[in-house]
Amino acid sequence: MLKLVLCLVSILMLHGCSLVKSNFQPKGQKLLKIALIADSQFFSKQARPFRPKSLWNSQSSDFITNVTLRTVVQNELSEHSLRELLKNTIENKQPDIILYLGDGANSGCRDELEPLFKVLGEHEFSSTPIFYVLGNHDYLGAGNTSNISTRNMLCTPDVMDDLSKTTLSSNSLSKYSAIKMIHNFNYRSVDKISTLGFEYVDNYSDSLVEACEKNGVVQHGESDCFYAAYLENDFIELFLLDSSNYGNESILYSKVKQAVIEFKDHSFSGISGFISSKQWEWLTNVRKKRAFNRRMVFASHYPPSDIGIFGNNTKSMTVKGGKRGRAIYFNKQHNKMVKPLFSLIKNSSDMPVWLSAHTHVRQPELSGFANILVRNYTAKDRRKVRKFHTFNVGSTTDYDQHTLVIDLHEISATSQAVRLIDESQESTCGDLILRIEKHISANEEKYMPVKTKSSYLSYVGMTTDYRTWEYGDYINAAKNLKNLMTKLELNRLEKSCLIYTAAKNEDDAFSLDK
What we know:
Blueprint: H1 2-14, E1 30-37, H2 59-65, H3 72-76, H4 78-93, E2 97-100, H5 110-120, E3 130-132, H6 148-155, H7 175-186, H8 190-194, E4 199-202, H9 208-212, E5 229-232, E6 236-240, H10 257-262, H11 277-286, E7 295-299, H12 308-311, E8 317-322, E9 325-330, H13 335-345, E10 353-356, E11 371-376, E12 384-392, E13 402-409, E14 413-419, H14 426-442, H15 471-488, H16 492-513
Parallel strand pairs: 1-2, 2-3, 6-7, 7-10, 9-11, 10-12
Antiparallel strand pairs: 1-13, 4-5, 5-6, 8-9, 11-12, 13-14
Helix pairs in contact: 4-5, 4-16, 11-13, 14-16
């Protein structure tokens, strides 16, 4: 039964929009250049990898999803990868604004999200406004569970007592705590974005504490526990959405409702996204209407196909796919959820744009142009259809690490990926790996032992042998990696080669698993 549920979860977690490479030609005046970054999933230094007590942080679940655990190199060099991609994107593409689309953390730990914001706020990136969108991994254990005991085990495994079963530790972020951190980070860019004529507002307030922690109970909160923001100027409206906005509404649209009931102690919320009607209503009320139409851009962690009101109940809607994208048709029971969205876009003459992440899409050239067609069922018009341009960005930690830069024009949008390692550098990486293997072969006795070794690269945590390891093996490999980088005096490109190769090894192994 557990294997069946894990398989179902893996399908839902990894499912995203059908994206195809864009041949769409830019039309009209260029309005804004937006860089998308996401899914670094920094790993807590206090956490113990591979502890099988948690369903969502074990070797068995990693065989199913491939995003539960990672190689030692990916965890240890995730900050390096994010920093390099930021640097390359800003220097080579000069975006007007950067949107980080969530999941900077792995299990909602304080020592995961704080280092993430430290990197994003470094001086060399300070001239470019960066705004953060909340993701499920930013406050849920392994991106899925709100169970307090499990969350503490994932963030502070060495401090497990009776209190840790009912109260979050100082290193385990509640949703409100994560929202507060994101709000404070985002407001650092408000003055920068004003130079482009943008005004910014979000829903953060003192009353949000009660919404997210009713009666002192820290879980997901209710439907009004969300973090959303709205940016607008004379040409663009940008909606930053909380797509892990769970509550009583979302359970009605879950494909795995029965699984949630049976495994309620683990909580399966993160396998799909949701945007509550209350969030749509807040955005509708805060929106500044103009006498003329502006480009509308929606940004969320989850792609539209993984958000509850867009298609998590196969009994109440129909999905049709094809070369032109994904068509989603709602029945009447969804009207309460979709009506606020349609009230936002109904008068827009141009096609709205939807930006998302979550899928860890492997090949950046596939992150491009796609359509989503949505039919709004109403008494007056049962055939009203709206289209969206959608763009989906992958991970800075998982293969193939990249960012995505969107050129937003008056009536079109195009994209281009910035990869951590481009094709011209792959031979350099290949030469480095041969050099590392030769070095370890000649100095094997100087490296600390690990349980399973499929190659010399296992000593430094570049293979999927971690699936058979214990905690001590992980620590030994991490020390070996540090020793190797010091001995060989690796430069920035060579460190990028390490995480690129390790991520590719993991991705190749997962392909074989399937």
